[in-house]
Amino acid sequence: MAEGAPQGRPVIRDALLAGVPHGFFTGIGFEGPPAADLLVPGGQLVRLRQVHSARALPVTAPFAPGEEPEADALVTATPGLVLGVVTADCAPVLLADSVAGVVGAAHAGWRGAFGGVLEATLAAMETLGAERGRIRAAIGPTIAQASYEVDAGFRQRLLDAAPANAAFFAPGARADHFQFDLPAYVRARLEAAGVGRVADTALDTYADSARFHSFRRATHRGEPTYGRQFSLIGR
């Protein structure tokens, strides 16, 4: 369940991660990367060059500017680090095992989720002492099914991988088109991988232009597509 943003701070927190420094920052009104110490006093922000991969990296220190590796998830057990991913329709997923003191942040678009980025994130967290049954995962603002039309080829690719994926598609308004439920797909991958508890903020980036950037909305409107929002979690 999403909690409202504190006045003056464009950030959304999920009750499932209560007690863990985290935030899904809105894109509108907060165009630059949020300061890590908004979450952790004196915290250091760690970022990646995101490429829609299934690569998840354990980290113990920030990367030098311009030397960020290509990957789509970060995990850490190092106090003072704040992990950050950026999205604009893809699913940001923040994860924590508070007993082990391990946190993770993943960028899960359909390619990354389909390719295994969530499972890779869990495996990386396990190398630091996390246990899947203790991990809590919150899915941040993401394009919703009602806003995400795909063609028959997209649907068939997921059905070829697993016929049960048909559950994530609804008929579209046009022939041979379907509405894809990305957050439900992400949730199902997390649950199938053994995550103890999963929450979805249920906020649609496409529909909520007052708060969120959306790559698809900008494309449909012929607007610039460079806007993104940050999602952060810290130790």
TrEMBL record:
Q: Extract the signal peptide range.
A: none
Q: Sorted alphabetically, which InterPro entries does this protein's record hold? A: Cu_polyphenol_OxRdtase (IPR003730), Cu_polyphenol_OxRdtase_sf (IPR038371), Cytotoxic_necrot_fac-like_cat (IPR011324)
Record's Pfam families? Cu-oxidase_4
Superkingdom, taxonomy of origin: Bacteria
Q: Report keywords, A-Z.
A: Hydrolase, Metal-binding, Transferase, Zinc
Write out the catalysed reaction. adenosine + H2O + H(+) = inosine + NH4(+); inosine + phosphate = alpha-D-ribose 1-phosphate + hypoxanthine; S-methyl-5'-thioadenosine + phosphate = 5-(methylsulfanyl)-alpha-D-ribose 1-phosphate + adenine; adenosine + phosphate = alpha-D-ribose 1-phosphate + adenine
Q: Which family does it belong to?
A: Belongs to the purine nucleoside phosphorylase YfiH/LACC1 family.
Q: Which NCBIfam families does the entry mention?
A: peptidoglycan editing factor PgeF
Q: What is this protein called?
A: Purine nucleoside phosphorylase
Q: Which organism is it from?
A: Alteraurantiacibacter lauratis
